[in-house]
Structures are given as C-alpha cells and as structure tokens.
Design a protein that fits this description.
mainly alpha; 11 helices; 2 strands; WH-like_DNA-bd_sf; Tscrpt_reg_HTH_GntR
Amino acid sequence: MKNEHIVRRSLAEEVAAAIEEKIKLGNFPVDSKLPTEPELMKQFAVGRSTIREAIKYLSQSGYLNVQQGLGTFIKSVTGHHALDAKIEKGNFNDIFEVRHVLELKIIEKAAINRSAKGLKDMALALKNRAKYAISGDLIACVEADIAFHSAIAESCGNNILTALYNTLSVHVNKFFMEIYKDTTPFIASQKQHEELMEAIKDKNIQQAVAVANQIIQHK
C-alpha cells in the first residue's frame, strides 16, 4: 500500500483556511470589512497572535488588504493560488532569479516614491533583524528580513509589483528556513541592509541598486 504524506498545518493556517472558505462562500464579500480581531478571536476560539498570523498569511496570498487605521478588507475570492502553485513547484534558483529581477525594480522605484511611513517600517524591521540575528533567533530573524524587504516593496508605488513580491516572499521564507542553520549570514549582511535603507532614504537610486546587488549575490 502506498504511504500517504500528511501535511500538518499550524493553528494559524487552519484559521486562514477557514476564513478563506468564508470568503469563497460569500460570507465575507469582496470589498467588505473583515470582522475585528476580537470578533475573529471569539469566532474561532483562538488567541490574537493566531488571528494576526492568519491575516498576514491571507494578505500575502492576495485575499485580504490590510489598511492601517481603517481595518482589513476582502480583496479577492481567488487570491494568488494559481501563482502560488506554480511557485511551489519552482526550484530555489528560479524563485530567487525572479525575486532578484523584481527586487531591483522595486528598490529603484522605492528610492523615488518612499514615504515617511515606509522608511519607519523599514527601520523597525531592520532593528528587529539585527536584534534577532544577534540573539540567534533564526525564525524571528527571517521574518524581520522578509518584513524589511516587504516594507521596501510597499514603498515602490506599484501595487502589482508589491503583490508579486509578497507572494514570492512566502516561498522565500520557507527556503530560508531550509538553507540557513543559524543567523550568522544575517549578522554578516546587516551593514549592507542598513546601507540599502540609507540609499533609499537619500533617493540615491544608483547606490541603492548597487547595494541590493551585493546583498543578493551573498544570499
């Protein structure tokens, strides 16, 4: 008898799947506002961190649009599943090649369009990246690294580029957890990441792209 491979899902993934199902059934219609965190916590009998993780996942998957200060809104019934499936089948080099191409264009545009909020988000993610790298917390360090690059993507001024990048980042996160055994590479590249943010802050496109190339070549 052929062995069945069972994929174990986290509690947050289970909640995300349940919310996704409600979106597809029309219980949460497109453009409507998702119930508040306390309401979702009560509905699914889980904690705040689980709800936040589920919302983050659904946002990255194209189902939700999180608008700071306004709430979370239903963005799509289908999300990025077709793209996700194709990326899932891709190999490490292919995914990083696409990410490289996207990232250079995003950084170029972010150096022109970055906002005060975008820079604040980058600075916070970078601070967390350094903190977790030094403490040796690989999972939190990878998440902070992704958050930093996602903050740059959010600042580029092109929603499609941002969505594509965030979709790729979900898979890059998985690869990082497979290839990195500790936070040593993140400590080594922290200075370059700080230089990247400074170049974006200074609207120095040439310097930002040059630093980004250095970072990508060392990953």
